[in-house]
Amino acid sequence: MFTPLEEEGVLYAIEENKYISLNTTYTSIIQYVTDGLDFNTIVAKLMEEYEVDQEVCKVQLNSVISDLIAKDYINEATV
Questions:
Q1: How confident is the model at residue 22 (pLDDT cuts 50, 70, 90)?
Q2: How many other CB atoms are found less than 10 A from the CB of residue 12?
Q3: Whole-structure pTM over 0.85, yes or no?
Q4: How do residues 23-61 score in pLDDT, each as one tens digit?
């Protein structure tokens, strides 16, 4: 379960029964995934929010998404 707060967000990991505080970047990514945006659209949105090169953004977003999938916070079908 994901709850966006002002500039950050909180993720409740049901299976682990714990709350995880998210920084602004993770909050944006989770929100975009929750909104059903595809990978390339998320990259474009993050590039608007942050000063980041497209290739760097793609690599880092892929890493974050892989991490979130590995921890079962999102599933592959979501992205």
A1: confident
A2: 13
A3: no
A4: 788 888 888 988 899 999 999 999 999 999 999 999 999
AA letter at 41: T
Helix (H, G, I), strand (E, B) or coil at 75: coil
Angle, helices 24-34 vs 54-70, to 10°: value is 80
By CB atoms closer than 10 A (0-12, 13-18, 19+), residue 10 is middle
Q: What is the mean pLDDT of residues 4-27?
A: 73
Helix (H) or strand (E) holding 65: helix 54-70
Report yes or no: 26 and 13 within 8 Å, Cβ to Cβ: no
Cβ–Cβ under 8 Å, residues 52 and 46: yes
Residue 9 CA to residue 56 CA, distance in Å, equals 23
